[in-house]
Each structure stands twice: as C-alpha cells, then as structure tokens.
Design goal:
The protein is an alpha+beta fold and 79 residues long. 19% of the residues lie in helices and 15% in strands. It has a two-stranded antiparallel ribbon.
C-alpha cells in the first residue's frame, strides 16, 4: 500500500492496516525497524484504556425502519 508523508513527517495508516490491528483513535503504537530495514508497526495496550461503548455491538442492527414523524409521535405521546 502506498502512502505519502507530509512535510511534518506524518503518514496516514491505510484502513486495511487499521482494521487488521484493530486500531482506534488514541491507540498507542510501537514502530521499529528490523534488521532488513522493514518498518514494523505494532499495536500496544494502552494504560488509559478507553471505556468500552456498551452500544457498539448493537449499533446499526435494528430491523425496524422508523419514519421520523412516527417516532416523534410515539416519543411525544401523540397520534
């Protein structure tokens, strides 16, 4: 995968790599260079682990399609 380094030395980690390493915002990474000159990127466990989102597993799984006006009527107790 090809990426470009900015003038500030920053690079974007491609989505395939972020997904493979399960990288989330604020993830801690260990970057090293092996004997062959290859860059090795490893996810490390953060001491300040983010509290898991209790809704993450079910987000987007609802099988009921609500219309906004119907949902608002239900929430407001109207008809």
């Amino acid at each position: 995968m090809l990426t470009t380094m900015t003038i500030n030395g920053q690079v974007t980690i491609p989505k395939k790599i972020r997904d493979a390493l399960d990288l989330k915002p604020d993830a801690k990474l260990n970057i090293t260079v092996n004997r062959d000159g290859d860059v090795v990127l490893q996810r490390t466990e953060s001491k300040n682990k983010r509290k898991p989102d209790r809704f993450e597993d079910v987000r987007g799984t609802a099988d009921i399609k609500w219309r906004t006006k119907d949902l608002m009527a239900l929430l407001r107790g109207g008809s």
